[in-house]
Specification:
Layout (H helix, E strand, L loop, with lengths): L1 E12 L2 E12 L3 E5 L6 H8 L7 E7 L3 E3 L8 H4 L1 E3 L12 H9 L7 H5 L3 H20 L15 H14 L4 E5 L7 H17 L3 E5 L3 H7 L2 E6 L2 E6 L1 H5 L2 H8 L6
Parallel strand pairs: 3-8, 3-9, 6-7, 7-8
Antiparallel strand pairs: 1-2, 1-4, 4-5, 9-10
Helix pairs in contact: 3-5, 3-6, 5-6
The structure holds adenosine-5'-triphosphate (ATP).
């Protein structure tokens, strides 16, 4: 079943066509890679998919329990719709602990009101206990449990990236968007992350879309890849189809399509 459809999507910034005439479908349960040279429009696409940017024209449709179109997108509501993301430039609460960062992500799932919280009613404590238990499980999955009381800013870069993913998962998304999850990681960390992404997809029953420049990660775990160049979608297919596509080779290496 299609979890998301993009129809004739355009986004311009003044005279710059950052994303132009995009048509694509994401099937439930896939890991989809979005690749392309710098400035190809990948992050703009993510910002459109998460309501940060409004399309200049075209439409995005999420097929969750009820369909949501891009007209009703609000970035702060995306988690409620079942969409969570990470950012190219890590966005953590740097002066909060690791535990509190992930608890902030979990906050969207809390179903008590202000009064329950103010007067410390039983449902407040029940929700808090449940949140703590689930967040601790997540921290264990990401190997961050032993560091739970450290400030996020003190974590090495690779672990900050993992923490951002853990926080996104705490929102209990159905669709997870990862913007360059391996950026700044060393080869060992990238290898671990590659396995972790596949593992969390199965464990949390997710559909994942990731932007990534590390081709070995993309080719290993993505069932489908979409390739962008100058804002246009120039190819879509399996890793093998993409590797052998002359337009993709040209976009990355330049020169003639036959090279
Ligand atoms: N807010 C903005 N205002 C003006 N131009 C923008 C804005 N955001 C992106 N652009 C332009 O749109 C084009 C696509 O940029 P985008 O960041 O989406 O590419 P990208 O594929 O994510 O690149 P990278 O791999 O370097 O992150 C670029 O020409 C960029 O300069």
């Amino acid at each position: 079943m299609a979890i998301m459809k993009v129809n004739n999507l355009h986004k311009s910034f003044g005279g710059v066509k950052a994303v132009s005439d995009i048509q694509l479908t994401i099937e439930e349960g896939e890991i989809v890679g979005i690749i392309g040279p710098n400035g190809a429009g990948k992050t703009t696409l993510f910002n459109l998919l998460t309501g940060i940017y409004r399309p200049t024209s075209g439409e995005i449709i999420y097929n969750f329990d009820t369909s949501i179109t891009s007209k009703s997108f609000k970035p702060h509501k995306m988690a409620k719709y079942g969409v969570a993301r990470t950012f190219q430039n890590i966005r953590l609460f740097k002066n909060m602990t690791i535990l509190d960062n992930v608890l902030m992500g979990y906050h969207n799932n809390m179903n008590y009101g202000v009064l329950h919280s103010l007067f410390r009613l039983p449902s407040f404590y029940q929700n808090e206990d449940k949140a703590n238990d689930e967040v601790i499980e997540l921290l264990k999955v990401f190997d961050l449990y032993d560091k739970r009381d450290e400030l996020a800013k003190n974590l090495p870069y690779g672990e900050q990236r993992k923490l951002e993913i853990a926080r996104a998962l705490a929102c209990k998304p159905r669709l997870l968007l990862l913007d360059e999850p391996a950026a700044g990681m060393n080869p060992k960390e990238t290898k671990e992350l590659t396995s972790l992404i596949t593992w969390i997809k199965d464990k949390f029953d997710l559909t994942i879309i990731l932007i990534e420049h590390d081709m070995s990660l993309v080719m290993q775990i993505c069932s489908k890849i979409f390739v962008f160049d100058y804002g246009k979608l120039i190819a879509g297919g399996t890793p093998q189809e993409i590797q052998n596509n002359p337009r993709v080779i040209k976009a990355y290496l330049g020169g003639e399509e036959s090279c």
